[in-house]
Amino acid sequence: MNNPPAFPSSNEVTLNDWVSSGHSGMSLRDYFAAKAMQSFLVDQCHDAGQWDLDAKAAYKVADAMLKAREL
């Protein structure tokens, strides 16, 4: 499964005393899972006890999305 970086940057960023020469970004799988999890949390019927199940389901959705990209 191809899981490239979602938001890579080769630009140098300076913030006060902190300097970054770039970063690979989060993985596309993590980005897709975060978007799926966000939609689960919008549902007011979910309680905190179900978040572990929602997180696992979010990664299943992300895996399906990555697989669909390969078609």
Characteristic key phrases:
mainly alpha; two-stranded antiparallel sheet; 71 residues
SSE layout and pairing:
Elements: E1 13-15, E2 18-20, H1 28-42, H2 51-69
Antiparallel strand pairs: 1-2
Helix pairs in contact: 1-2
Description:
It contains two helices and two strands, in the order ββαα. The chain is mainly α and 71 residues long. The chain has a domain at 26-69. The protein has a two-stranded antiparallel sheet with strand order 1-2. It is flat. The N and C termini lie close together (11 Å).
Number of helices, counting only DSSP H or I runs of 4 residues or more: 2
Provide the succession of SSEs: EEHH
- Neighbour order of strands in the largest sheet: 1-2
How far apart are the first and last residues' alpha carbons, in Å? 11 Å
Beta strands, count: 2
Task: Report the mean per-residue pLDDT as an integer.
Answer: 83
Largest sheet: 2 strands, antiparallel
Structural class: mainly alpha
List low-pLDDT spans: none
Dominant shape: flat
Backbone CA Rg: 16 Å
Q: DSSP strand (E) fraction?
A: 5-15%
Helix percentage: 40-55%
Give a quick rundown of the structure:
With about 70 residues, the protein is mainly alpha-helical.
